[in-house]
Each structure stands twice: as structure tokens, then as C-alpha cells.
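Quick one, T. Sequence first:
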Amino acid sequence: MAWHRNHGVRTGDQLSAGERAADRMRNSMGSWAFVFTSLVFLAVWMLVNRNTGFDPYPFILLNLVLSCVAALQGAILLIAAKRSDQISSELAQHDYETDCRSQELLTILQADFERLTRQHAEQSRQLAEVLTLLGARRENPAS
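C-alpha cells:
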């Protein structure tokens, strides 16, 4: 089951704007579309600036832009990791609460089963007494 379909994890309007942004960034920057878009951007930049563009070879401005993107990606990766930890924590909390409710139900069922077992034993004992009395009455019809 995907985490975003689990009712133990907050989604949509339950999330803060920062959490929604972290999810969007994680999902977009961790995709093949981002990789291919980046490659196309680099190729276009190099083609446009190969000889006499505004950033001729060795593409010093491009290197600056890529360094800034790399620095931001590091922070974004940390934000995404923090968000993933938060999701894992929410799932673990949901699992714990479910386990606690299950334990409570099992305790109730066990108590009910023990009560029913005692009732069954008592009824079996009473039935045995009745059968004994009936058997004695058959042997002594005058009583």
C-alpha cells in the first residue's frame, strides 16, 4: 500500500505549505523528467553560448548556476529526507495505535472466552447432575 493512501498519514489540506512544497520538490527532483529537462537545458545553454553568446566557453555563468542548484538540491534533499522520516513516524504511530487497539480487543475476547469456558463447565456439571438424578430415578421409580 502506498503511504499517501494510508489513513494514518496526513495528506492534502492536513499538511502545512512547507510539507506540501517538500513533497512536490521531492517528487519532481527525484524523477526522470527532471533529469532529462536538466540535460536539455544544459545542451541548449551550450549550443546557444558555444562561441559568442553571453556566457562563452568555459561557461562560467553556467558553472555558477549549477553550483547554486547543487547547493539548493542539498538543502532540498535534507528537507525531503526529513519529510520522509515524518511520514515513517506517522505510519509507525498509526501501527502502534492499531496494535494497542488490537491488544485491547484481544484482552476483552480472552476474558469473554474464559467466562464462556467457566459457564460451559458449570452447565456441563449441572447437566451431569441432572443426568445422574434422572438415572437414579429410573432405577428407583418409587421415589
